[in-house]
Amino acid sequence: MTIAIKPTVLIIGCGPANFDPNPPPCTISFDKQGHAVALTELERQGKPVPSPTPMYAGVTANTPRYQQRFAEKYTDYIRLNRVVTRVRHAPQDHPAVKRWLVEWTPSYTSNSPEIGKTFEEQFDHVVVANGTDSRPFIPHIDGLWNWKGEILHSRWYRKPEAFVGKTVMIVGGGPSKLETGWPKHINNVSPMKIVQGPSEHSNTGRIVTVLDQVIDDVDTIADQPGVHNLDSHQLFYLPDPTLAFLLLHAEAIPWPFSEMQARVVASYWIGTPLELIPHSDEDNDSHSVLVLGHPGEFEYAEGLLKLIGEGGSEEVDSEGRWGAWPEWKKHIRALID
């Protein structure tokens, strides 16, 4: 989903996630630097298509309905079935009058008669609002290319029956691992350091962790993402803060959280001064640097609001300034975590 609020801001998002029980297969390849790349066949062919939805069987959420109601008053600005193929600064020799040039094309899976055509528009600011799940990312792990078992990015996970009788190593974790009945099947280990090739010890390959734990006979490796080059709030792109990212964090209630982030971004872009410094754990590839949980999400969001002169004791005060969550909401959140 692309929302264009002219004349200055482009918001790039993926829209509501509808469950797809049979996504195109995930295929893994490795680039020259040894980074794993997870793509569908159409993506490998360079077709402009969205990545498969990460929704899996059994997920219960009312967020798509919320999004649809919220979007009704902005329908004049929303463009669906468009794939943004390039975002760049306007070159000096380009006649553009705005900072960013954005190229897009109709989705290959749409019925548009203009499939194959590329269009270009100009914007002063760009917001990438698709969260961490829009593009599968697998951290670099030395020797992973030697692995002979299955590698599956979590975006392609649909139901547990597919793994009956298998031993699965999950790289990264989240609240789903706490679902009823699962803890007794899970053993936590330290992060992976290296993958050795198949041998007499393991048909797929031996995994060695950073604490030198040795793990054999794993059938499948599943993975979660990381992100780089952002400020300490993991919100603005440091080389050029006219580019911002919303809701990269995990284990946060998405709608109030992203709305608070958007409020801070808008405030900064209209002149509110903010000190933007690199994230303290910039070199960490782990998804853990984006995990907040309780009470982290409240501390983060309320701290952001204070930076722009808000963040009081009330949710919304008499002057319309945003503030803290009420204690009853925090209590419910604590029960979920």
What does this structure look like?
- With 337 residues, the chain is α/β, with parallel strands linked by helices.
- Helices cover 16% and strands 20% of the residues.
- The protein is built from 5 helices and 16 strands.
- The strands form 5 sheets. The chain has a 5-stranded mixed β-sheet, with no helix packed on it. Strands 6-7-8 form a 3-stranded antiparallel β-sheet, with no helix packed on it.
- Helix 3 (254-269) runs parallel beside helix 4.
- The radius of gyration is 22 Å and the shape is globular.
- The relative contact order is 0.12.
- Mean pLDDT is 81; it is low at 1-7.
- It comes from Kwoniella bestiolae CBS 10118.
- Belongs to the FMO family.
Q: Which geometry do the CA atoms define?
A: globular
Q: Tell me about the biggest sheet?
A: 5 strands, mixed
Which sequence of SSEs, written as H and E, runs from N to C? EEEEHHEEEEEEEEEEEEHHH
Strand order of the largest sheet: 5-1-2-9-16
Structural class: alpha/beta
Question: In a few lines, what is going on in this structure?
Answer:
Helix content is 16%, strand content 20%. The protein has helices at 41-44, 63-71, 254-269, 293-307, 327-336; strands spanning 2-5, 9-12, 27-30, 36-39, 78-79, 82-89, 100-106, 119-123, 125-128, 150-153, 168-170, 192-196, 206-209, 214-215, 220-223, 243-245.
Using brief descriptors, characterize the structure shown.
337 residues; 5-stranded mixed β-sheet; alpha/beta; 3-stranded antiparallel β-sheet; disordered N terminus
Topology overview:
Blueprint: E1 2-5, E2 9-12, E3 27-30, E4 36-39, H1 41-44, H2 63-71, E5 78-79, E6 82-89, E7 100-106, E8 119-123, E9 125-128, E10 150-153, E11 168-170, E12 192-196, E13 206-209, E14 214-215, E15 220-223, E16 243-245, H3 254-269, H4 293-307, H5 327-336
Parallel strand pairs: 2-9, 9-16, 10-15, 11-15
Antiparallel strand pairs: 1-2, 1-5, 3-4, 6-7, 7-8, 12-13, 13-14
InterPro entries: FAD/NAD-bd_sf, Flavin_mOase-like, FMO-like
Family: Belongs to the FMO family.
GO molecular function: flavin adenine dinucleotide binding; N,N-dimethylaniline monooxygenase activity; NADP binding
